[in-house]
């Protein structure tokens, strides 16, 4: 047997060799023989049809039965690493359940694992218990593998188990912001799941975590870190109390690992021990960074033990923590994890054991700090907590730390280590713990602080306010001298004084406060860019204001107004930075609320915050704080809202403002009575609803917003009845006229109404059929409202003209009624009689199924001349001319399904009408090409089972989409196709007739090998009914490819001579004389076939002219190619200046070209297109509207081309409405243009790109003589 398979360029030879190899696979294969399978697998991974042969092996093997089939599976798993495909085809689970050690180790040996959200990969899930069983098997069989492979298997197992756990916690693929959750995870509704976790699930999650730790799995720490977060922060609120207590023993085992992995342990390398010189303050970048850095809001570490202490008690947590500490001490020094020690110390700071062992713990602290290079900032912050609580135990620690901070951290050296506030806070704590040292070195400490940047005075202020230091200064015999040293610092500038304001307020008498006001105002008005206006800055000033406003009202008023203006300016500046570089605000509104109690103060605040209050959330937050104040109460908020509503409805941007006001009402209505304001907004809103919905009927996002807006408005009304009546009127009395007062055609009017009805019905369902709504509406109001609704619809519309879905919605509105007005009853009866038999049956069935008793009279034969026995639907359909009726239903169903606007849910509803309708849907999928706007998610595999729409077969598929079918079904689906598109490499040997295939689209790209052409040639041997063929080459041709194309075309014409009626052949221009002759031969075959079939056969030959930048093409050398070209594709056409001559393209019918900043439509190209020798029928332009903001004169000339019938525009980005109007205005001038299509396509130049619908409101366009078929296609009759 040869050591290598034949080169993969001839599919017959290659397939024969592969089959021979597979048949001879045996256990005694050498390594080189086994490696040959890797080349087969590599090729197969690009072609699911080919791969399906190998996947069938998994159905044939028996677990733990070590025969040749078993050996084949192990070999395949060694080389095939597409875990996602195995997962989607349920092979992955089957292999896990096999409990076969060899298979399982082979499966996890591959580094390729599942990834992402598994719910997006497959509709099936894997139980975590299965992975635990698998680990037991892996753990018992290390001898099968080498040590490195065994470690890799365990690592891949752990990663896969984590993916499954992640799916358990976030089944919808969502996630949480860990840092944000850690700040506040208690009593949060958004962390509570709809369904609680089961006891067994969490027990299994803990087992996975413990196995990862026990077995020292490589690279597991990141996953273990997340598992601790899940188990400690996201789990307890989603368990029952009984289950929490049951899990006590498991959670207690986690305590050592909580110290290892909890948030405090995720420490960044904040600084280097040597201290690096930082940028001098002053630049914008450094200033902004320092804003962040100096924010003194303490970020408290999350308590991962919170729930464990709450449910299991502090005693047992301390006991287990003590065991951890004793275990940590018992390890050799080099094996100790110092980070876990400090995390343990941070959690256990209040433990009685800690108090009894401070000296020992401090010694360990110093050893860790003295030996670390990276984590000392965190270590010092924890030690600082202990010093504040217990002080310094031994002088040596104080001396060591002072030396460490001064000499190694260099925190007092100018412009060094400026970016670590924790170091300065610790230094302050350390000095406060030893007042004798601090007072003795007071002048030196003050001097060094003043040598640092002015902002560092905040730490001097903190030190001075420490009770021990403040008391020492007050009681020291040199108190005046010490105070004067501080005053000299404060007198350096208003900024220095303001940073020390808290100390001066504490030291001076209140009677002296008035003298401080000028300095404070000077600091507030400072233009120094480095000044940090944070919460502490404003807090101290406002506290100062609160003290002086009684005795010094005039000065206090001035100070208050200046402070509020500065505060608002700071807040606005912060808001501008949010979302770009910054994650937190320097200031928040919360700090000023305690200092505002007077109505004048609050009014001034509202006046200054006008711009900020444009944010509805901000307005709500501010208002909530003042609702309960006696001076303001509800009245002030209500008056502000009234003014806001009046002002917003005068605005030109009503949509956006409306959503903002609604958000405010929504947020505040739960705190105060806003019935009047909601009613006012609702009345104004319903005046706008028709315009909002009519002119956005193609924009479902806006419709959804309108729906939710209306529902919220109505929900908050105490009396919903009146409001709902107004809403119903907004549906029934829409002004169906365009902006220029021309009446909208009936077809558009109907579509608009039906879109409006969908929006209305979605609100209706939320109010009347939502079990969680709890809206109490009196029965008499319900009847009155629904009577008004059905009367309006029936009197305004003939139901026969509406879609069946709209009819069903209307019929359901009759359900609450107990009687009908005679005129309404007669009108409805008259309309019902106009329906065809099938529609009557559908309506009567719907009435029966939904128990709409008021309409049962429609089934009275004496009134309608028609009756329907619901119990004998199938019997009636088959007894009375079954073939004819079946054919009608099939035509009806097929028409609906082929409509592009039909949604998958509509098809499902249609199929559930009856078995006959279901079969008609299946027949449509078998015989028609279905294009759904909403595709089926990739995770769903398409079935051929009894109740699948594909049970009878499938009409059209892309070759790549065959992978959506089970590997056992894929060959059946392939051979029964009627339409096939091949745009991906094909490596499958077609070996039997494709009896239904009539349409074939082949596009050969750069990543295709010659093997694909060989496959297509063999496929032609089995195609005898082709009617339409499209064959496009996107990349350069060579002699071998051209000879294969020649053979393909000869076989195509030979086997499909009587059926072929359309052929498209596209290829790039070539300039090699020998190759040109070969292409001419292919074109001759096409022309000869056309000569033999002049009436039935039409062809199109597309030539792509692409100018390479390294050489200029010469079109005179390829006259034989240009003269046969019917469709011309121009790429980089600016390089063809002087060469595009009309006499070279006498058969040209259509052109595609790209217009951009490089390739302009210059006069030469326009003259070429406009030449009378070029009889152009179709024009496609791929362009960017930003390059040409207006349709210029040259393009206007282009659209005047006589006999031009079709125009297609493809934009790389969304153009504005004005650009659409410009295009429509130009094409309206040419009476021969009957079709205009506008799409959005890929920015990369590719005429075969997938087009995307452009959302545009048809009713806002100036269509002229054109009519819109949909949002992309316009026709002229």
Helices and strands: which structural class?
A: mainly alpha
Given as residue ranges, the uncertain stretches (5+ residues, pLDDT < 50) are 268-299, 578-584, 690-703, 736-742, 872-881, 1243-1250
Estimate the helix proportion, in percent: 40-55%
Radius of gyration: 40 Å
Beta-strand percentage range: 5-15%
Shape summary: globular
Strand order of the largest sheet: 1-2-3-4-5-6-7-8-9-10-11-13-12
Cα separation of the termini: 70 Å
- Return the average pLDDT rounded to an integer: 80
Largest sheet: 13 strands, mixed
Question: How many runs of DSSP E, i.e. beta strands?
Answer: 13
Number of DSSP helical runs? 60
What would you note in describing this structure?
- The protein is mainly α and 1277 residues long.
- Among the domains are: 701-867, no CATH class; 869-935, no CATH class; 1149-1277, no CATH class.
- It is 53% helix and 5% strand.
- It has a 13-stranded mixed beta sheet, covered by helices on one side.
- Helix 20 (338-347) runs parallel beside helix 23.
- The longest helix has 25 residues, at 553-577.
- It starts with 10 loop residues before the first helix and ends with a strand.
- 31% of the residues are buried.
- Residues 268-299, 578-584, 690-703, 736-742, 872-881 and 1243-1250 have low confidence and may be disordered.
């Amino acid at each position: 047997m040869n050591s290598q398979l034949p080169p993969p360029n001839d599919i017959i030879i290659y397939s024969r060799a592969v089959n021979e190899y597979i048949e001879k696979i045996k256990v005694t294969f050498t390594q080189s023989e086994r490696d040959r399978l890797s080349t087969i697998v590599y090729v197969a991974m690009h072609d699911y049809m080919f791969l399906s042969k190998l996947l069938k092996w998994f159905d044939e093997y028996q677990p733990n039965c070590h025969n040749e089939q078993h050996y084949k599976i192990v070999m395949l798993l060694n080389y095939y690493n597409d875990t996602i495909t195995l997962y989607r085809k349920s092979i992955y689970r089957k292999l896990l359940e096999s409990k076969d050690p060899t298979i399982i180790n082979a499966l996890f040996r591959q580094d390729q694992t599942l990834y992402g959200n598994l719910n997006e990969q497959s509709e099936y899930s894997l139980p975590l218990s299965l992975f635990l069983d698998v680990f037991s098997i892996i753990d018992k069989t290390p001898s099968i593998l080498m040590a490195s492979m065994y470690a890799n298997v365990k690592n891949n197992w752990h990663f896969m188990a984590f993916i499954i756990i992640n799916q358990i916690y976030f089944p919808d693929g969502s996630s949480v912001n860990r840092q944000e959750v850690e700040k506040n995870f208690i009593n949060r509704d958004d962390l509570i799941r709809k369904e609680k976790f089961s006891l067994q699930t969490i027990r299994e999650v803990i087992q996975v975590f413990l196995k990862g730790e026990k077995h020292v799995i490589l690279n597991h720490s990141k996953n273990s870190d997340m598992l601790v977060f899940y188990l400690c922060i996201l789990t307890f609120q989603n368990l029952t109390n009984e289950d929490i207590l049951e899990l006590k023993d498991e959670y207690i085992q986690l305590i050592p690992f909580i110290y290892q992995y909890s948030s405090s342990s995720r420490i960044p390398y904040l600084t280097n021990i040597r201290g690096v010189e930082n940028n001098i303050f002053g630049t914008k970048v450094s200033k902004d960074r320092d804003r962040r850095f100096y924010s003194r809001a303490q970020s408290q570490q999350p308590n991962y033990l919170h729930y464990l202490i709450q449910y299991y008690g502090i005693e047992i947590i301390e006991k287990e923590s003590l065991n951890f500490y004793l275990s940590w001490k018992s390890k050799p020094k080099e094996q100790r994890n110092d980070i876990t020690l400090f995390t343990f110390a941070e959690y256990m700071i209040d433990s009685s054991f800690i108090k009894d062992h401070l000296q020992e713990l401090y010694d360990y602290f110093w050893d860790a700090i003295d030996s670390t290079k990276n984590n000392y900032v965190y270590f010092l912050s924890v030690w600082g907590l202990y010093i504040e609580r217990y002080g310094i135990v031994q002088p040596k620690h104080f001396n060591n730390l002072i030396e460490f901070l001064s000499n190694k951290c260099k925190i007092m050296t100018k412009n060094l280590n400026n970016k670590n506030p924790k170091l300065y806070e610790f230094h302050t704590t350390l000095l406060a713990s030893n007042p004798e040292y601090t007072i003795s070195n007071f002048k030196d400490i003050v001097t060094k602080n003043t040598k640092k940047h002015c902002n560092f005075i905040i730490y001097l202020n903190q030190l001075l306010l420490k009770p021990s230091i403040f008391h020492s200064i007050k009681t020291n015999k040199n108190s005046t001298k010490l105070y004067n040293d501080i005053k000299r610092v404060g007198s350096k500038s208003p900024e220095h004084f303001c940073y020390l304001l808290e100390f001066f307020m504490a030291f001076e008498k209140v009677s002296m406060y008035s003298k401080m006001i000028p300095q404070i105002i000077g600091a507030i008005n400072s233009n120094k860019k480095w000044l940090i206006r944070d919460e502490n800055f404003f807090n101290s000033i406002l506290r100062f204001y609160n003290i002086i406003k009684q005795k010094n009202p005039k000065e206090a008023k001035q100070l208050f107004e200046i402070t509020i203006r500065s505060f608002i300016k700071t807040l606005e500046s912060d808001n501008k930075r949010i979302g770009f570089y910054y994650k937190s605000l320097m200031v928040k509104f919360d700090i000023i609320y305690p200092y505002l109690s007077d109505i004048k103060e609050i009014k001034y605040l509202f006046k200054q915050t006008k711009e900020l209050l444009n944010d509805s959330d901000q307005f709500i937050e501010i208002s909530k704080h003042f609702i309960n104040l006696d001076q303001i109460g509800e009245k002030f908020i209500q008056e502000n809202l009234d003014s806001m509503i009046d002002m917003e409805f005068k605005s030109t941007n009503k949509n956006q403002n409306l959503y903002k006001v609604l958000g405010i009402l929504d947020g505040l209505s739960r705190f105060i009575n806003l019935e009047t304001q909601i009613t006012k907004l609702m009345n104004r809103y319903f005046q706008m609803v028709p315009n909002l919905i009519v002119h956005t009927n193609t924009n479902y996002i806006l419709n959804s917003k309108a729906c939710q807006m209306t529902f919220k408005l109505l929900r908050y009304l105490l009396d919903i009845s009146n409001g709902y009546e107004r809403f119903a009127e907004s549906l029934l009395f829409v002004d169906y006229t365009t902006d220029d007062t021309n009446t909208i055609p009936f077809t558009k009017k109907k579509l608009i109404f039906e879109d409006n009805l969908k929006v209305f019905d979605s609100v209706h369902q939320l109010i009347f059929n939502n079990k969680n709504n709890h809206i109490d509406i009196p029965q008499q109001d319900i009847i009155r409202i629904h009577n008004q609704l059905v009367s309006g619809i029936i009197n305004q519309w003939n139901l026969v003209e509406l879609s069946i879905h709209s009819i069903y919605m209307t019929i359901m509105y009759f359900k609450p009624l107990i009687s009908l007005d005679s005129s309404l009853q007669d009108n409805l009866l008259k309309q019902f009689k106009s329906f065809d038999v099938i529609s009557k049956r559908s309506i009567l069935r719907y009435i029966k199924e939904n128990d709409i008793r008021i309409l049962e009279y429609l089934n009275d034969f004496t009134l309608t001349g028609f009756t329907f026995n619901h119990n004998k639907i199938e019997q009636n359909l088959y007894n009375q001319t079954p073939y004819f009726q079946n054919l009608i239903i099939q035509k009806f169903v097929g028409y609906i399904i082929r409509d592009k606007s039909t949604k998958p849910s509509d098809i499902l509803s249609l199929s559930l009408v009856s078995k006959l309708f279901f079969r008609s849907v299946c027949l449509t999928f078998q015989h028609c090409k279905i294009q759904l706007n909403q595709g089926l998610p990739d995770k769903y595999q398409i079935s051929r089972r009894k109740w699948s729409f594909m049970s009878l077969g499938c009409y059209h598929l892309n070759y790549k989409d065959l992978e959506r079918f089970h590997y056992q079904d894929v060959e059946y689906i392939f051979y029964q196709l009627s339409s096939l598109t091949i745009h991906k490499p094909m490596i499958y040997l077609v070996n039997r007739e494709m009896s239904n295939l009539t349409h074939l689209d082949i596009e050969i790209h750069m990543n295709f090998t010659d093997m694909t052409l060989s496959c297509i040639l063999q496929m032609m041997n089995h195609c005898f009914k082709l009617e339409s063929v499209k064959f496009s080459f996107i990349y350069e041709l060579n002699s071998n490819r051209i000879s294969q194309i020649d053979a393909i075309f000869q076989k195509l014409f030979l086997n499909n001579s009587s059926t072929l009626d359309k052929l498209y052949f596209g290829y790039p221009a070539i300039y090699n004389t020998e190759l040109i002759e070969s292409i001419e031969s292919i074109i001759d075959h096409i022309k000869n076939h056309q000569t033999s079939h002049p009436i039935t056969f039409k062809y199109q030959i597309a030539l792509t002219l692409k100018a390479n930048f390294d050489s200029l093409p010469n079109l005179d050398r390829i006259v034989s190619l240009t003269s046969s070209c019917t469709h011309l594709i121009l790429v980089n056409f600016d390089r063809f200046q002087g060469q595009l001559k009309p006499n070279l393209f006498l058969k040209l019918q259509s052109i595609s070209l790209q217009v951009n900043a490089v390739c302009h439509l210059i006069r030469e190209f326009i003259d070429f297109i406009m030449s009378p020798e070029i009889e152009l029928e179709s024009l496609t332009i791929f362009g960017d509207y930003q390059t040409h903001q207006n349709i210029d004169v040259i393009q206007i000339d282009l659209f005047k081309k006589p006999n031009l019938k079709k125009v297609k525009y493809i934009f790389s980005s969304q153009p504005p409405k004005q650009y659409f109007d410009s295009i429509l205005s130009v094409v309206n001038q040419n009476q021969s243009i009957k079709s205009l299509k506008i799409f959005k396509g890929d920015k990369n130049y590719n005429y075969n790109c997938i087009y995307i619908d452009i959302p545009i409101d048809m009713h806002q366009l100036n269509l002229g003589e054109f009519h819109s078929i949909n949002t992309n296609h316009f026709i002229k009759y």
